[in-house]
């Protein structure tokens, strides 16, 4: 097996937490692995409730001065952070590829997307306008002012380890809030690289904090970030099951929350569709990031009149366009899944479907480590797991549908 080297500036590969403007060690650490090879990339500080509380306290203290910064001052700092991301885009993309397996062209796309949030919010920071509302009284005016809410806890997923941070943090910092970021345990290096660049950009101490932790410590750290009375806002992207837990934690102190949770998105092809365009859309929707995005279509409902043509052309497109391998290798479009558990879930769904009468037209097998072949299933019914559960992998199940009235949501 060919080996690949991360090959980025050492200053961007940090292994400590970033709290109150300082790099902070924890009592233990945990490994970050390349999902393509299983090789160790780094060992990162395994923060617990104490470090999470320390970060919240630092963010709360910094909030009182950060909110006093002028809109232009916050804008200039975010712009500087954006410019540093653009300067280091190739290195940031390699970090994304090595810790989450995403093919390098997609990783470069994510970093550009990620930097774009900081650019956008650096400009929006100057536009936190209020309103003047007509009053029912002659001697009064009603003024609406927009003010920052306070400390925001930011809990992000592994599939977009850079963009999911900047889209949340950029908005919070532009508004005058301070943040504590808990990155996913599989992908903390992108978050810490962003912290390094934030520090270089001059973001004040305590405004942006990062507390990485292992899977074992995640529940305790998450509880602190959702229950501490100094936290005013919680933003989470991840599974529905975890989102429910965090909502319960946040309820006692009635925090503002934003949740982007799991889904079961349908891709519907009617008899009137342009089949070639439908196939192109299905390829882009299903196999981006090896099927591991929040907006990947999960079940494909195709009317009988175009079903056979759609499936045939889709199989040809998969053969021609999809190539598995390490994300750093040129020409690869399908990297590994994030870990072995993710691959096992896809295998389980395939086995369940086949046991209920589905047919594997392409793929269907698990590769070495966490690789999973892009898989095309036909003869799928709504009783199968792959149509009821979000897959988060390169599995494309096709359901032959009759009249439009038969196209109904799964329970």
UniProtKB/TrEMBL annotation:
InterPro entries membership: Ald_DH/histidinol_DH, Ald_DH_C, Ald_DH_CS_CYS, Ald_DH_CS_GLU, Ald_DH_N, Aldehyde_DH_dom, Aldehyde_DH_Superfamily
A Gene Ontology molecular function term of the record: succinate-semialdehyde dehydrogenase (NAD+) activity
Residues spanning the membrane: none
Gene3D superfamilies tied to this protein: Aldehyde Dehydrogenase, Chain A, domain 1, Aldehyde Dehydrogenase, Chain A, domain 2
The Aldehyde dehydrogenase domain, residue ranges: 23-400
Any Gene Ontology CC annotation: mitochondrion
Active site: 260
GO BP, sorted A to Z: gamma-aminobutyric acid catabolic process
Signal peptide: none
Short name of one Pfam family: Aldedh
Keyword list, A-Z: Oxidoreductase
E.C. no: 1.2.1.24
Family: Belongs to the aldehyde dehydrogenase family.
Protein name: Succinate-semialdehyde dehydrogenase, mitochondrial
């Amino acid at each position: 097996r060919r080996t690949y080297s991360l090959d980025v500036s050492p200053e961007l590969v940090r292994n400590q937490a970033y709290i109150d403007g300082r790099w902070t060690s924890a009592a233990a650490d945990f490994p970050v692995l390349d999902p393509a090879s299983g090789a160790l990339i780094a060992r990162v500080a395994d923060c617990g409730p104490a470090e999470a509380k320390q970060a919240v306290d630092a963010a709360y203290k910094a909030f009182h001065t950060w909110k006093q910064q002028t809109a232009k001052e916050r804008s200039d700092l975010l712009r500087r952070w954006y410019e540093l991301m653009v300067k280091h885009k190739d290195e940031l993309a390699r970090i994304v590829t090595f810790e989450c397996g995403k093919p390098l062209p997609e990783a470069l796309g994510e970093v550009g997307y990620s930097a774009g949030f900081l650019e956008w919010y650096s400009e929006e920071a100057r536009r936190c306008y209020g309103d003047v509302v007509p009053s029912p009284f002659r001697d009064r005016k009603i003024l609406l002012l927009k003010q920052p809410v306070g400390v925001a806890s930011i809990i992000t997923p592994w599939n977009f380890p850079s963009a999911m941070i900047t889209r949340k943090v950029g908005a919070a910092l532009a508004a005058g809030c301070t943040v504590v970021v808990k990155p996913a345990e599989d992908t903390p290096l992108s978050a810490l690289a962003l912290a390094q660049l934030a520090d270089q950009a001059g973001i004040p101490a305590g405004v942006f904090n990062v507390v990485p932790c292992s899977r074992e410590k995640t529940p305790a750290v998450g509880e602190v970030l959702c229950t501490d009375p100094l936290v005013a806002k919680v933003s989470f992207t991840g599974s529905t099951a975890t989102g429910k837990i965090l909502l319960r934690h946040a309820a006692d102190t009635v925090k503002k929350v934003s949740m982007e949770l799991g889904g079961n998105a349908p891709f519907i092809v009617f008899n009137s569709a342009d089949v070639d365009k439908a196939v192109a859309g299905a390829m882009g929707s299903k196999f981006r990031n090896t099927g591991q995005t929040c907006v990947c279509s999960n079940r494909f409902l195709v009317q009988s009149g175009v079903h056979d043509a759609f499936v045939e052309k889709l199989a040809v497109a998969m053969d021609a366009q999809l190539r598995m391998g390490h994300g750093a290798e040129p020409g690869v479009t399908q990297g590994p899944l994030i870990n072995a558990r993710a691959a096992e879930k896809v295998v389980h769904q395939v086995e369940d479907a086949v046991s209920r009468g589905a047919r594997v037209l392409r793929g269907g097998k698990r590769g070495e480590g966490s690789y999973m072949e892009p898989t095309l299933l036909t003869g799928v019914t709504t009783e199968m797991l792959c149509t009821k559960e979000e897959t988060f992998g390169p599995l494309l199940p096709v359901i032959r549908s009759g009249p439009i009235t038969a196209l109904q949501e799964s329970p």
